[in-house]
Amino acid sequence: MTSIWAARTGLYIIRCGPQAGTPVCSLSRQTHNCSVPTHHGTLQRDPSSRMAAATPHRQKPQWSESVTESSAELKMVESFKRSRRFITDPGLINSVQKCLAPWGCSRTRPVIMECNPGPGILTRALLDAGHKVFALESDTSFLPSLEKLQRAANGQLKVIHCDFFRIDPWSEGLVQPPSMYSSTLMKNLDIREVSWTSDVPLKVFLMLGPKKERILLWRHIYSLYERLSVYKFGRVELNVFMTENQYQKLICKPGDFKNYRALGVLYQSACDIELLHKEPMSTFLMPSKFESPSMPNSGGFANENLCLVRITPRRNLFSENFTAADGGIFVQMIKQFLAKRKSKLIDRLDNLVPGNGKDLLESLALPIDITTGCIYPGEYKLLFEIMLRSEEFNRSFVLNEIYEDIAVTSY
Predict the structure, then answer these.
(1) Mean pLDDT, to the nearest integer, of 56-75?
(2) How far does the chain reach from its first CA to its final CA, in angstroms?
(3) Average pLDDT of the chain to the nearest whole number
(4) Using CA atoms, how far apart are residues 86 and 69, in angstroms rounded to an integer?
(5) Where are the domains of the chain?
(6) Nearest-angstrom CA–CA distance, 262 and 330
(7) Residue 11: which pLDDT band, with cuts at 50, 70 and 90?
(8) CA distance 237 to 239
(9) I need a surface site. Which of 285, 301, 320, 361 has the fewest CB within 10 A?
(10) Where would I find the Ribosomal RNA adenine methylase transferase N-terminal domain in this sequence (predicted)?
(11) How remote is the C-alpha of 213 from its chain's centroid?
(12) At what angle do helices 121-128 and 143-151 cross, to 10 degrees?
């Protein structure tokens, strides 16, 4: 009875949260409000407002001069042979630098891992702001200029030939750069494991391409729930530029049967998700051969937005009722349940805990005919924790498809 009353109390908090009017994006946690929040403030100005805000009396930051002085690097970007976006706009650099700054009362200042910095213009701004930066660059053409910057940074910058998108490949055997195992990378960077409840030890800044963003997000959600890869070292925070469409799916709420998907449920269950900044794609620099919106590799139209999203794993994700050993099973269960969002939840539960579906729903005061697409992420986690304590829980029903998913999300 104690567990049932605890579950009902948790359910009340979850389901009554949206009535309090809390905004979706919050430093504490996301709520169940289905509306899209309006974001204001200095971190979300358009390019024209940034120019208007600048006055002749304001001193230019050190990094603004480096933009004009690095013409060789910009020419390198212009001749780059692959589709890739680069940050060179001074206003955007300033906004990103503010977003990545340490916050709150954190006892330790986390270092920043900048993925694919290219010519290193944002890197210079982060160094000027006093950050310690680990630059992971996948393309060798940019390494000489980054290594030159490293030599002048007095230990504040370390450059590694590594592709963050290819960390911990599923293939066994010898791995050559830019692929790398996370254990090797963290050893090279002298980053040590900390407890899960400690402060964020590392901020990762990266930009997702439209073709690979879902793949990378899926890889990370598996690693997060099982505390593998970079998450072995603590609550690593992702600061990700992604398409606005993907961001909206990530924060989607129950009842939207088109966009409420397993990926969003899993991230909302595990992480605080915060929208830091929106920027039109036209602000980012691309090689001229890929700039045309009509080209298949251009990655969208110029008036579309990219969203800088902070994804921070919660301190209370794991407990004695939910461990990393259970994480992979939970991920697979959510994938199965959300595959058909209009199916009856009781039918899914009876497959996993035969004959106990009705009791499980009643323990959380859920309607017998509720569908899988109408359950809040926190409710799914409560259901799973109750199921784990049942002797009838059929784990093999979930585990049968895990290896198939590994093949789909591998490189």
Answers:
(1) 51
(2) 47
(3) 80
(4) 17
(5) 2-24+321-408, 42-313
(6) 11
(7) very low
(8) 7
(9) 320
(10) 92-289
(11) 10
(12) 20
**For residue 392, which amino acid is it?**
E
- Using an 8 Å Cβ cutoff, are 205 and 135 in contact? no
Residue 232 has, within 13 A of its CA and on its CB side, a CA count of: 13
Rounded to the nearest angstrom, the gap between the alpha carbon of residue 31 and the centroid of all alpha carbons in its chain is 18
List C-alpha distances in Å: 90 to 43, 97, 148, 379.
Answer: 13, 10, 22, 44
Please give the backbone phi and psi of residue 239, each rounded to the nearest 5 degrees, phi first: -115, 105
7 three-class SS: helix
Q: How far apart are CA 360 and CA 394, in angstroms?
A: 15
Which tokens hold the place of 386?
A: 């109750």
Structural domain 42-313, CATH architecture:
3-Layer(aba) Sandwich (3.40)
Residue type, 375: I
Q: Is 118 left (phi over 0), alpha (psi -120 to 50) or beta?
A: left
Helix spans in 300-401 (H): 324-337, 345-352, 357-363, 377-388, 395-399
Both tokens of 210, joined, read: 């439209």
User: So what's the pLDDT on residue 60?
Assistant: 39
Task: Return the pLDDT at 70.
Answer: 56
Q: What is the pLDDT of residue 102?
A: 62
The annotated binding site for S-adenosyl-L-methionine is made up of: 87, 137, 163
Identify whether the C-beta of residue 36 lies closer than 8 Å to the C-beta of residue 274: no
pLDDT band, residue 45 (cuts 50/70/90): very low
- Model confidence at 107, pLDDT cuts 50, 70, 90, reads low
* Cα 80–Cα 83–Cα 88 angle in degrees, nearest 5: 70
* Predicted confidence (pLDDT) at residue 54 exceeds the cutoff of 90: no
Asked if 279 contacts 46 with a C-beta cutoff of 8 angstroms, the reply is no
- Closest to 250 (Cα-Cα) out of 278, 219, 236, 271: 271
